[in-house]
Amino acid sequence: MGERDGDRRGTGRAATPDIESHLGTALRAYTPDPEAERRALAAFRTAHASGRTPHTRPRDDWRPAPTGAASR
Is 47 helix (H, G, I), strand (E, B) or coil? Predict the structure, then answer.
């Protein structure tokens, strides 16, 4: 563990000297499109108001199977 210990900076995290600055730069570079957000919200509200229940594909459903039920 000698090399690993040298990679730590006393914070309990792996040494990533510039990750925070890179993430900050990426987040600051994002400029949301108000019109796109409005359209997305309108589409969500329309779908929600239709009363249809969305179907989850079994491979995307990570919930534990109910006890006593057959596997999905």
Answer: helix
